[in-house]
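Problem 12. The chain below contains 710 residues. Write out its predicted structure in token notation.
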Amino acid sequence: MPEIPAARAKDLEHIFYPKSVAVLGTNRVVGTVPYDIFANILRDNFQGIVYPVSPKERSVAGVRAYKYVLDIPDPVDLAILVFPSTVCNLALEQCGQKGVKAAIIISAGFREIGGAGIQREEEIKAIAKKHNISFIGPNCLGVINTDPLSHLNASFARKMPAEGNIAFLSQSGALCTAVLDYAQAKHIGFSKFVSFGNKANINELDLMRYLKNDPKTKVILVYLEEITDGAGLMNVAHEIITETGKPILVLKSGRTREGAAAAASHTGSLAGSDEVCDAALKQAGVIRCTTVEEMFNTAIALAYQPLPRGNRVAIITNAGGPGVLATDAAVAQKLSLATFSPETLEVYKKSLPATANIKNPVDVIGDARADRYKVALGSALKDVNVDGVLVILTPQSMTDIENIAREVCNTIGQFDKPAYASFMGEKDVAAGISILQQRSIPHYVLPESMCRAFAGALFFKNYREMKPEDLQVFSSVQKEKAGSVLQGALNAGRKYLPEEESVKILEAYGLPTLLSGLAKSGADAAAIGERIGFPVVMKVVSDDIVHKFDVKGVVLDIRSRTQAEEAYDSIISDIGKVMPDAKIKGIYVQRMVTKGEEVILGVKRDPSFGAVIMFGLGGLFVEVFRDVSFRVAPVGPRSASEMIREIKAYDMLAGARGKKPRDIRSVEECIQRLSKLALDFPEIKELDINPLIVNDEGGGCYVADARIML
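Solution.
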């Protein structure tokens, strides 16, 4: 059995490896959930004792029934509740009195229906806490453990899945039944299979921690409809991956932004929950999948084959077109076609027909039989320049599909390199596919899926080998100075900080700002401009105005006292026409930077993941192009560098088309300082620096505009 850490409060061992199980609320009606759960436990060779509990029946499926769980003379490790939700509290209370320490509550009618269901769920949580009962559910399909030591099918799934090394955790019970059917058709087995429903007690993090130490589990799959503790999920995932090398794949629903309220800042608008989720999971080493098929395509690659050492792939095919498709798909996934060694090319020249293409992709020609596939595949796997092989077969009249499948399996088994197969088609190749799947060779309907799975396995390998990142320490940070500005705003009941105050906070954390001042009149604006040096930019300061450009609240490139006075009057007049009720605190006069690349930095406080840092293409069109990247704070030097290089506009910063490269290092430092600020002050809800003007390499960068929301 898996080792359970001593500090663990929840009892998962009695859920997966109980010596005795009581099914509370079962009946004798075949085809109902209460009966099917009890029958599944009996039929699927559970290695312990099972007791039916039914107030109305004397026996169920030929087994003596007990009226109440308290009537069972022997100890009970696990109780499975299938009573109506309205009486589950009474049944769970009796379990507590009996000394049962673990339960699976199958029954629906709790939090998911709202109203009285919420109250019922709170009641069973209180009973469980009183009696120290750990439970899965309510509103779930149940739990399956294929380990022969237990062989427990405590669910109403139609069939017990085959034993395997993949664990599947799901918030949705309905999805579980579809997944079991899908997996059976593809000969995919499971170690543990859990539907955890409303997760009122045991949640996905508890289950993941348990699977961390489960010797039967090699790959962990999780389906989630909501992430309530994003930081906890990241920590647990990172811990599992780095300490045990077990990959984690997550399929989360709710990717679209429909129905979301408009945010008050660029960062808030761009950092939707799904974008943040994507970045956070990647940051933790988790492979996020978009479909069930993609999840299992990647899972079987990780479960059945060695990890790739690099991105160099060889493609073996008996048809030119699919080879080209696979090449395109590989390049799209940032894989590269391996260059064969002279020794490999010599073998191909001697062993393959003269009409065969011996360069990558290798085309063994349509009449190829098992011997050609053996030579092509074996030589590629032996080649030191090859990190993995993708095998493609199309069914032609002379193709001996089953023998080729057997030879592919035998050859792959002789090497410690990953190899995947795509026997394209359906009916004609079915027997060959079955051979591959039964021998645990990853098979894919299309070459594109094969390449995506290889890229997923490579991402996991690279993450697992990545060295821990040390955070940079900034001794110049003046936390108290920033705190006093924020506290002043909070004391005044303000949620929006004008640029003048935002800049003071950024200055305190060492971000480079421009000389500036707040003008209360045209004469003030002229004097400030003269003091800090023209040209200047002038911007309205008002709690009622968030996007200043939209209301003509910004005037650029002011080069004299006279222009400054005129600009002041113009801004006041224009805003008075479109927003007559806006309370204007003054006009912010700032030294203007006329050269450099515009980027954006931002912070958003995500309810699940915490402080999220954003970087991207800046200026007026940031929300149009949405060329941005995200990380959950804290952000270290490596992560800051990755953020910058992820965006499509990176070439503009690196020096595209003969331009000088911009000062990327100064931007990396700004990202890290902003991360520190966001962690130090959780009261900051959103923060925008847009634009941050980046000069040529060595010239630094400057905050040209900033806003903070509390």
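Discussion. The longest strand covers residues 597-606. Students who got a different answer should revisit the alignment rule from Section 12.3.
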